[in-house]
Amino acid sequence: EPPAPGVGQRGTVGDAGPDGPRGPAMPRSEPVRLDIPAVGIHTRLLRLGLEADGSLEVPSEPMRAGWYGGSPTPGQRGPAVLAGHVDSPTGPAVFYRLGDLATGSRIEITRADGRVARFRVTAVRAYAKEDFPTRTVYGNTARATLRLITCGDWNDDTDEYDGNVVVFAELAGRGG
Q: What domains, with CATH codes, occur in the chain?
């Protein structure tokens, strides 16, 4: 499961930040659907919280991704965080092909207000659990950004995942 968010995900941002000057943004509206045509991901979204130990809750259903309710909504300034399973006891899950995304790939998130936040992938990274860059993933950004997180690097000796795959994306457009 992904590490604890814990790094300023709800703070305010100034006119500039790690991603440069403020970019376009949308008003708050919870996400309801995720579509990533390049890897065949089409799913309704669940709302996620935190586990008792402070780690990010994982979706209760393997074929559905979830939005972390403590993060901005997709399209708002800051990093909106979505998580999903890579597999389940019965086979591949919703984010099975997440690591296959390429820079420039399109991600669309339909929001409760009926508008669509359109993102473009800027990076796909794999991290060992002990090297997970919490601040990079969950820390504030001056732009509307998106983080998609799943497990990676299966360890046969321990029967668990030793890492995470994280997709980074920026808001590229919006529509209704």
A: 30-175 (2.40.260.10)
